[in-house]
Amino acid sequence: MQSVVAMRVVTADGTVRTLGSTNADMDELEREMWWGCRGAAAALAVVTAVTLRAYQIPKTVEHGRLIHPPSPNAAAAADRLTAIEAIARGLPEGIQVDVCATRGAGGGGGGGVTLGVFPCAVDGDLPADVARELGLETKHLTKSRYCDVPYHSMLPDDGDGDGDGDEKSAPGDGDGVPSQATPGMFSYVRQWFVDELGADGAAAVAAAAAAAPTDDSLIMMQHAGGAVRRGGPGGDDETMAFPHREWEWSVVIIALWTDPGADSRSAAESWADDAFDSLRGVGVGCYAVDIDRFRRPGNAAETETALAFGEENAARLRELKRRVDPSNLFAAAAPL
């Protein structure tokens, strides 16, 4: 949201408004909408145009991919996750390391856990000591334009030692790697912002991965830290409805399955919900886009709204909603 500098929106009554830096004459309502639309736009208006801040990056970045052999059990995977987190939290802003956790192939809840690490250095090269600590060798690293960095693939390394292990094509683009976009694939997603997993959080992630209902389901830990914290408590950025700045990970729980039957859907959704609940002790909030007032109505949706915006912001958004959408035309988003 920090990179959104302006937007054009259409409110429920058909009024077109320009919000942000391109409108030096915003009235009081437009200033309030500018605050609210950076975090809750779908509940307030239709966004028809967005102006984003661009950032300078090098012509090439170094990135890597290492799929560890399956850990024999969840406890061993949790130990490895704890070690990876300790490395990640000490990295400078220009380096991130995402992590994926899946059950061991054919797991069914009693097998091991497979972990994948995906570092990326947007300021140039990945330092040799960081790569070494993460267990990466030269064959696990490559350089490319930032826009060509492949999406995370949890396919096993091909073992040919040619350094192309991280160059496999992105999930769902025809290479057989499951993703939410794969035809015939059903998905259900939950998400937490987490500042620090610690031992308890790592154990929860590993246990959830081991208990996944399908080999395709996974838990993705998207690494932020660093720059994301700028503008948080004590920062100098203007406020916005999206409040979450103090976090290291966006932990995304992705249930994927192909059987259209009700039992498979129920098992997949229950797994994701249970994994979400197991992380409540370390979660600091969630994305508003993941509020699902249809699958999780009533008090659950209200609780998720509070997690997404915080109690104070949620109350302010409800007042703004009454002003710009009193008939609740945009009802499919967060229940405000």
What do you see in this structure?
It is a single chain. The radius of gyration is 21 Å and the shape is globular. The chain has 2 domains: 4-55 and 310-324, Uridine Diphospho-n-acetylenolpyruvylglucosamine Reductase, domain 3 (2-Layer Sandwich); 61-286, Vanillyl-alcohol Oxidase, Chain A, domain 3 (3-Layer(aba) Sandwich). α2 packs across α4 and α6 crosses α7 (311-324). It has helices spanning 28-40, 74-89, 128-134, 198-210, 262-278, 299-309, 311-324; strands at residues 4-10, 16-20, 46-52, 61-64, 66-67, 95-103, 113-121, 141-144, 186-194, 218-223, 249-257, 283-285. The chain is of the alpha+beta class. 40% of the residues are buried. The chain contains 7 helices and 12 strands. Strands 4, 5, 6, 7, 8, 9, 10, 11 and 12 form a 9-stranded antiparallel beta sheet that branches. A 3-stranded antiparallel beta sheet has the order 2-1-3, with helices on one face. The chain starts with a strand and ends in a 12-residue tail after the last helix.
